Amino acid sequence: MTEKRSMKEVREEVIKVLKTVYDPEIWVNIYDLGLVYDIDINDNLDVYIKMTLTSPTCPIAETLVQKVESKLSYIDGVNHVEVEIVWEPVWNQDMITEDGKLALGLM
User: Fold this and answer.
1) Beta-carbon count within 10 A of 36 CB
2) 16: helix, coil or strand?
3) Spacing of C-alpha 4 from chain mean position
4) Which candidate in 10, 36, 72, 88 could, as Cys together with 81 as Cys, close a disulfide (CB 3.0–4.6 Å)?
């Protein structure tokens, strides 16, 4: 029987996985682009992600959500994954992490 993982361990792995999902137009990962607004993990290790897109007319919105859900579902111990696209607050370049700004040449 495997030991149940802590929410902190799962959160750290969720972030690692999110950093492997790239915006195909900008080619920076969605986490460092600041597209991930909230990561909620409950006691059952169900993962709920609130994220946005750089544009409401993003042609790959549905595909991107499916990719995030699929990749996160492979994390050991995670039971359920749900990704919700939100539009508030509106994404802007100030939300990009320092790593993302470096990748984009903004620093």
Assistant:
1) 22
2) helix
3) 23
4) 72
For domain 7-100, which CATH number applies: 1.20.1070.10, 3.40.50.2020, 3.40.50.150, 3.30.300.130? 3.30.300.130
Is it the case that residue 3 has pLDDT exceeding 80?
no
CB 100 within 8 A of CB 33: yes
| Pairing between β-strand 47-51 and β-strand 36-41 as defined by DSSP bridges | antiparallel
In 22-86 the beta strands, taken as DSSP E runs, fall at: 36-41, 47-51, 81-85
Q: Is the previous residue joined to 89 through a cis bond, with omega within 30 degrees of 0?
A: yes
Nearest to 18 by CA among 56, 42, 47, 60: 47
Q: Which two tokens stand for residue 9?
A: 């361990």
> Which pTM was predicted?
0.90
Residue 39 has, within 13 A of its CA and on its CB side, a CA count of: 21
